[in-house]
Amino acid sequence: MPSKPILRSFAAAIALSLAVAGCGGNDPDNSVGAVRLIGEQTIKTKTLFQSVEFGGISGIDLAPDGTYWAISDDRGGERGTPRFYSLSLDFDLTAFKAVTINSMTYIKGTDGVNLPSTARTIDPEGIRYAPNGNLYISSEGNYNANAANLFQPFVREFKTDGTFVRAFEIPTMFNYADNSTRGARSNKLFEALAVTPNGTVFSANEDALIEDGPITTLAAGSVVRVMKFDQNTGKQTAQYAYQIPKIPVDKAPTGAFAPDNGLPEMLAVSETEFLGLERAFADGVGNTIRIVRMTIDPDTTDVSGLPSLVGASYKPMTRELLLEMPINYQGVKLDNVEGMTWGPRLSNGNRSLVLVSDNNFSDTQITQFLAFEVLPKK
After folding, report:
1. DSSP structure string for 231-286
2. What is the DSSP letter of 147?
3. Residue pair 320/293 in contact by the 8 Å Cβ criterion
4. What's the chain's average pLDDT?
5. d(Cα 154, Cα 159) in Å, to the nearest integer?
6. Pick from 24, 72, 64: which is nearest to 274 by CA?
């Protein structure tokens, strides 16, 4: 029998202000005026499921049948084969009651064989349910100076049994070159993944490409590129710049890890509006989580033809801060939140929103699920 996760409940309801007009998922007449925290569930690090350590949950999405699909960012070579899970989340208006791990599926390569468990290959970060019942998965790839151990980032479609279906066409500017003078930066690629109500696929790099300038610091922000794909052909149709602010901490970090800020997730509100999840971390300080509204306006520039954004003239996507959750927010200590999905409709007719954290397989972290009620705009 598989090991069951040990869970603890945080059922206090907290009202959080979130001033945003828009819709949720496929409901164009549904406005979002505020969100209320329903509760929290956590899974401890080193929890096993089918003899494999559960964790590294970097993306989550709700399918129409009520199944939550969650991706682990285990690259292989450490705790097993890259994999995703199906989960059940039990919450209502009053409490977040349980998280159940239902199944684990290994991800297959283009050859139809499970990716290796003994070597690093891909770095899966985002997962979304496709309109045809398959799954879209984004990967940051794996940079290595040895070409034999270098795996480029991707956005791919898979069946729910982990079988590869197709790859989306990624512009070469996002490929790893030397991790120094051009191309992608290691571990800064495709985490954010979104599917609009009409099925259009979007993805974005987490922090700036080398040609687009420095990554975020305590003093300045950076810029990333949001790609739009034709879901039928898999080809990119446009690219939009999105500006990430500087790291929001009020003191210099301590310890071994450099501070960062990035865009680990996007959630479609409509064809042109998204909820963006910005996650900042500073060693010795902790995590700051921001939910923002990202909008492609009619005059937002398609930057796909710009080889560099440094000094270029363009209009980025509109960014509006909706909710900022500091390291300790209303009694909840935020972990490394990286995933976001719409949840089911609640008994009063309101929608719900779910966030999940990546525990980095660290003994000092947890896999944290947060459930919110979405309150309509008055």
Report:
1. TTT--EEEEEEEEEPPP--SS---SSSPPEEEEEEEEESSSSEEEEEEEEEETTTE
2. G
3. yes
4. 88
5. 16
6. 24
**What average pLDDT does range 6-29 have in this prediction?**
37
Take residue 309 and report the two structure tokens written for it: 């954004």
Return the pLDDT at 26.
38
| Other C-beta atoms lying within 10 Å of the C-beta of residue 12 | 13
Tokens of 353: 């929103």
Q: How confident is the model at residue 31 (pLDDT cuts 50, 70, 90)?
A: low
- Looking up tokens 């996507």, which residue turns up? 317
- Decide if 314 contacts 225 (C-beta within 8 A): no
Q: For tokens 């660290």, name the residue.
A: 362
Contact between residue 56 and residue 359 where contact means Cβ atoms under 8 Å apart: yes
First-last CA distance in the chain: 49
Helix and strand tally (H, E) in the chain?
0, 26
DSSP state of 108: B
Residue bearing the bigger pLDDT, 122 or 16: 122
Q: SS3 helix, strand, coil % of the chain, rounded to 5?
A: 0, 45, 50
What does residue 147 show for φ and ψ, rounded to 5 degrees? -55, -30
Residue 365's pLDDT is 92
Across 60-69, 236-245, 273-282, least confident range: 273-282
pLDDT higher than threshold 90 for residue 200: yes
Q: How deeply is 180 buried, as exposed, middle or buried, from its count of CB atoms within 10 A (0-12, 13-18, 19+)?
A: exposed
Q: Whole-angstrom Cα distance, residue 345 to residue 265?
A: 22
Query: What's the CA gap between 321 and 310, in Å, rounded?
Result: 24
DSSP letter for 165, please.
E
